[in-house]
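Re: beginner question about structure tokens

> Can someone show what the tokenized structure looks like for a real chain? I only ever see the sequence side.

Sure, here's an example I had lying around. Input first:
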Amino acid sequence: MSSASRSAFGRLALVAVAVIFLVAVPLSDRILRGARLDLTENQLYTLAPGTVHILGSIPEPINLYFFFSNAGTAKTPFLRAYAGRVRDMLRDFAGQSNGRIRFTEVDPVPFSDEEDRATQYGLQGIRLDNSSDPVFMGIAGTNSIGDQQIIPFVDPRKEAFLEYDLAKLVYSLAHPKRPVVGLVSSLPITAGFDPMTQQVRQPWAVVTQLRQVFDLRQLEPGLTKIAEDVQVIMLVHPKHLSDQTLYALDQFVLRGGRLMVFVDPWSEADPGTPDADDPLGTGGQHSSNLDRLFGAWGISMPTDRFIGDDRFALQVMGPDGRPVRDIGLLGVGQAGLDQDDVITAGLNVINLGFAGAISVRDGAPVTVTPLIRSSDLAAPVNTAPLAFLQDPTVLRENFKPTGQRYTLAARLSGKVPSAFPEGPPPGMPADAPAQLREAANPVNILVVADTDLLTDRLWVQTQNFFGQRVANPFANNGDFIVNALDNLLGSSDLIGIRARASFSRPFTRVQDLRRNAEVRFRDSEERLKQELRDTEQKLGEIQAGRKDGDAMLMTPEQQQEIERFRDQRAGIRKELRQVQRSLDLDIERLGNWLKAVNIGLMPLLISIVSIVVLLVRRRRHGGGRRP
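And the corresponding structure tokens:
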């Protein structure tokens, strides 16, 4: 082939490549739209099995409408990028639904019928950059019987919960009749009027979350009869329940009803109204128990002791403004959560406050499966100091871990007897069914030895976002409650989705380094305080032993003792600085090692592989040229 022919052939090849490129790019965009290779550790961009099952079992058609203001977000790239993420996931939902989901994107241009339609659905428009026109980015869904579900505004800050929010919307439309959960609580957990502040009390975030999934029905604490359509009872902080109420709960469980109980040796959410037996409010009115039913089930929870834990202790602000770790406030990580149970599998952290310990007696009729447990650096602590506690470090006095792991929440299963073997108590309704002496089938009960995990402050921050209350969770407390109720109701489809919601990756090695350094720092600090007390006592003895009666002048012995103490104090302060510096150096060395691995190791591995491939090629070509 001549040089002119080769040149013409080269130009023709370039033209062909350009044509193929121009055709392949738009074609691939259409054919491969939404396709992705998910290499994340937790498969964050792959639909969870629970989502796939929900989508595959939709009985009737569902319409999903994504209202997105295209022109209004032209100058807001982060919203447009997130809208693409939402759009792709909605298309994935439609593709996995066997044609049951019809997805439509709507651009609500200002003053258009589409904008009126978005408003009628209840979607909320926001205003960006002082624009007079609202911007919409919400989702509305309808089913064949006219039910509606919406996400008023798809908040980019909740991207981790996007799949769950969409799956919950679809699930609610596919199952319009929500299961009934009865709530019995002595705490101000629901909305109401607060007589102390003279203002309307907002419901706790967990109640708002539960009402999105269940038909949450508040029951009176003095109930003697439970409606037949109530499938689960959520009993929070039971106090002073009558025998009639206890009997109704006992029979509800024996007849197959599901129960989730929250008891507490010290509930911070309990206002602790003083009573005649405890006028100072230092004792039992902050605690709750279910002794009679617990006794029949073979379990117990002491109300005068909570579980302190030095490994799971949360950091709080001390009275002097310095951060300290409170052994009563626990952030139980995955090491303390049962990863084999659908309720807690995949959750990262559950925060608790002054939780109790669930014990099981020998020969108990139930099987107890711990769901949340302390670490081995835990021990029971008396609740008495909590009444006037200002400095959390006080709880560390005489605190010695036992090496035992304590059960803070558990699942109970088995055939339990009635807690009323002598028969129904007086005062029961005349139409009450005949008493069951024992459960016909194994019961399903969840017991949590804490109520503070339900309070907002331990798991969620509620903010006002363009007039809308947005809850931003920082722990999995809400997920744990909904998971548990889902499981008690027999539904597990949403559980796997919710377990993937949080993808926080704490630096556990750094936390261990800080914890060890803190122990050394605290030991040195205690030694300094003890020497200070000893020296002051020594100075007092010297002063009392003076015979001249002049207490204002320093004797040589006193001056010598003071100088010795100053030298000791300076030495210990230097030691404290060295401990802190050692911590910083350990963390810095760990960071440098991680940088070396992340920055240098991969290029090095690629270089080695490239060299090996090059040598293999040369050897093959060299071998082929040999006669």
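Each token stands for a local structural state, so reading them left to right follows the chain. The two ends are 28 Å apart (CA to CA).
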